[in-house]
Amino acid sequence: MKYNPNEIEAKWRKYWLENQTFKAENNSDKPKYYVLDMFPYPSGAGLHVGHPLGYIASDVYSRYKRHQGFNVLHPMGYDSFGLPAEQYAIQTGQRPEDTTAVNIDGGFDKEGNKIAGYRKQLDTIGFSFDWSREVRTSNPDYYKHTQWIFIQLFNSWYNKKSDKAEDISTLVAVFASEGNSNVNAVCDDTIQQFSASEWNAFTKEQQEKILLQYRLTYLAETEVNWCPGLGTVLANDEIVNGVSERGGFTVVRKKMTQWSMRISAYAERLLQGLNEIDWSESIKESQRNWIGKSVGAMVSFNVKGHNEIIDVFTTRPDTIFGVTFMTLAPEHDLVAKITTPAQKTAVESYIEKTSKRSERERMADVKTISGVFTGAYAEHPFTKEAIPVWIGDYVLAGYGTGAVMAVPCGDERDFAFANFFKGQEGMQEIKNIFDKDITESAFGSKDGFQLIDSDFLNGLGYKEGTYKAIEALEKLKQGKGKTNYRLRDAVFSRQRYWGEPFPVYYVNGLPQMIDAKHLPIILPEVEKYLPTEDGLPPLGNALVWAWDIEKNKVVNTDLVNNTTIFPLELNTMPGWAGSSFYWMRYMDAQNENEFASKEALAYWESVDLYIGGNEHATGHLLYSRFWNKFLKDKGYAPTEEPFKKLINQGMILGMSAFVYRLEGTNNYVSKNKIEGQNVQPIHVDVSMVNASDELDIERFKAWREDYKNAEFICEDNGSFIVGREVEKMSKSKYNVVTPDDICNEYGADTLRLYEMFLGPLEQAKPWNTAGISGVFGFLKKLCRLYFDDNGMIVTDETPSKDNLKSLHKTIKKVAEDIENFSFNTSVSQFMICVNELSTQNCHSRAILEPLAIVISPFAPHIAEELWSLLGHEGSIATVAFPIFEAAHLVESEKEYPVSFNGKMRFTIKLPLDLTKEQIEEIVMKDDRTIKQLEGKTPNKVIIVPGKIINLVG
């Protein structure tokens, strides 16, 4: 018999599929355990060896928990809506649903290129996924539930008194009986008070407009990142250095009417929930920073000569007497109203310039100082002095109120701004209100000072000064104490085609929800995926996209009469919509009526282990937690938090290869010849480079037309050596290694073990294909314990103490490592164990049966084969994990060093339970002792049982 991984692995994958080995039950006497991988997007490029790292880790853990007797849910699906598929559709004319299906299931694209398909690639690696629960966010049977959740959000408001979301009908009842003066809700800042009689007298349209200011999802004019090149709004994390991450198109800030989600209602709960979950401190800190809780005061400044007020949130109301100027965000609504004619041109020019910078870029850029004086002045609430009002891009419209009361003596950014514009009209001298020197820099500490030149606050410190300042502002009705959050409401509209359609139609410009029983509202066919000629989103191209309220169905767009047939929403939902509840859909993926039954939700509760990349530290994880908390409020989700434990796997890096081109020529210089040359490094496909870093010159010349006539300056031996560098594994760097190639040559078990062996799960590590052969050799050595060329060699012989010691060391080590996610040291232990058993010539069934189970989570295919060869029926997957017995690791003997006058001469193995006298008697009778003493009697025999034997004199 020989180890043939391709044959063995295909056999057992077929067995798992036919027997639904990994299908989880929604009701079981076993304890439940839910392991989840972050939702992958199925790109046409497929998987490279970096992608499966987290999946292998989660699979090892899932298999281990099954061995421990758990009913394990380990599902997989696809986050299949998104901009990449739409951009590909625009470029090639193919339907996004077709290209997405090919990317998942495999097949051929329009150009005839063969696409392996995510499903086939995942299956080849031998994951224990419950494929009966597969979901795809772009399938109507999935996104009907996304649409349903949107409707629930629309029909809810956040009651601060009960600290949870409630049905909008409860708010309407309060309005009808007592108005809104006593309502404590998360809502728009511009709410006008009204009585019950006024509410009841309002028209239906007026009432709907008011309710939009309270709903958890609402329409509002919002500052967004607009990308004309892509024809859509982008999230901050889709922008790099002011341009779109995809395509490198210019991005500008502009105001658009958008759907938004009132995630800010959950800011405090999102913050407090971090204390209840087992996540890394770095991820928690990222979320805390994003939520950005700060305690301070809201202060109102009247604008001189205008009936306008500038509201400012400050964490330092104690510094109110140090205000030298004010800064508004360039996008602030007041800018156009208060700017003087003399400053109008400068202000408008600055606003246009600023619109081309993303919020993230503005936040990160702490070195550039820019701004413009508006010509307007505000009035200090206490001194009534005139305070110049500026605009500056370091202030963001969506953070706080979009306005800053600048206290240069106490804030470094204000200090730098004031000094940069020192002497210009509209910039006053810096006031110092601290008993500290601020000649060189601001004094930003909250400790170790007394306030000066601060009227009734003189002599006070931070705490007492803050309290007195707020008290005085409240008496003036120009301020109050407030807790603020950096977290802003999430824009929930995208001007794209390939996304979830909103279940919304419009009557007189006001949104109406389609009844849930008519869902899903299916994405319509369009002729082209670009915005319309008049700038509408791609759905504006749809010929069948209007809602008939009598027939309750989508009808032709040209039938809109605004009486019985109304226009539908043209925007689609963002990419994060479908991934914000998918873990709950997995609990009951075949349920046609609801996203999951109460019974399924109650059984699985939440995800016990979530594994994925740390690039989702804020966006996905915050939105997911928000939706989960909302669904908990509404009685659907059983737990407050969706993910109990979170592990972020590190990145597998690629080993890139470079050729060096002489500047301005088509000549290439070998690595060891480039010194003193003016060369440009160029990425080259790693498949053209051998293990000695030598380039296949002919393949390189045939790679591209412009390399066809290239000249090469080689090493003295005629070889051409490339440069090497560890970088992110990426198709654009030509350093991608596909798992398919590894699996074809060495088998999936080798790939799985090698990826776990590379290093600690949470650290980045470079890929080196050269190391694969060592792991493959280990698996062959493992097999030789069980069979040779003539067949099985396993015996029923009683295992030796050494056999048992090797096995139980491994059982103990592997169980502890898996629980601690230290998978790399488990693989090391397997190698040690197999080496020891090989040296011991062990072929005992009592040792090799439990060893197959222990290695099964890591190398499941060969484990299944060995289990079968050992005579067992069925899968090894649910066989109980071997129990560690400490007795086998207790040493019964000790190899003593025997020394004469402190110098070790030989060793002797003795039982550990011997007394000093017994040890001395045995040593003195040993021939080697007699030879060393040469007839002499030692003056002293020093014996420490279990440690040393020393004969002196």
Mean pLDDT, rounded to whole units?
Answer: 94
CA distance, first residue to last residue? 62 Å
Helix content: 25-40%
* Quantity of strands, as a count: 39
Uncertain residue segments: none
The proportion of residues in beta strands is 15-25%
Could you say which structural class the secondary elements and strand pairing correspond to? Answer: alpha+beta
The general outline is: globular
Output the number of helix runs: 29
Largest sheet: 7 strands, mixed
Q: Radius of gyration, Cα only, in angstroms?
A: 35 Å
What is the compact description of this entry?
By secondary structure, the protein is an alpha+beta fold. It has 29 helices and 39 strands. Strands 13, 14, 15, 16, 17, 18 and 19 form a seven-stranded mixed β-sheet that branches. Strands 28, 29, 30, 31, 32 and 33 form a six-stranded mixed β-sheet that branches.
SSE layout:
Elements: H1 5-19, E1 32-37, H2 52-67, E2 71-73, H3 83-92, H4 96-105, E3 107-108, E4 114-115, H5 118-124, H6 140-154, E5 156-159, E6 164-167, H7 168-178, E7 185-186, H8 196-201, H9 204-212, E8 217-227, E9 232-234, E10 239-240, E11 243-244, E12 252-261, H10 267-273, H11 281-291, E13 293-303, E14 309-314, E15 325-328, H12 334-338, H13 344-354, H14 359-364, E16 372-379, E17 386-391, E18 403-406, H15 412-420, H16 462-476, E19 479-485, E20 490-491, E21 504-507, E22 510-513, E23 546-548, E24 553-555, E25 565-567, H17 582-586, H18 598-604, E26 607-612, H19 619-633, E27 643-648, E28 652-662, E29 667-669, E30 679-684, H20 697-703, E31 711-713, E32 723-728, H21 739-746, H22 748-757, E33 765-766, H23 772-783, E34 787-788, E35 791-792, H24 801-819, H25 823-839, H26 845-855, H27 860-869, E36 893-900, E37 903-911, H28 916-925, H29 927-933, E38 940-944, E39 948-952
Parallel strand pairs: 1-2, 1-26, 15-17, 26-27, 28-33, 29-31, 36-39
Antiparallel strand pairs: 3-4, 5-6, 5-7, 8-9, 8-12, 10-11, 12-20, 13-14, 13-16, 13-19, 15-18, 16-17, 21-22, 23-24, 23-25, 28-29, 28-30, 28-32, 34-35, 36-37, 38-39
Helix pairs in contact: 1-27, 3-4, 21-22, 22-23, 22-25, 24-25, 24-26, 26-27
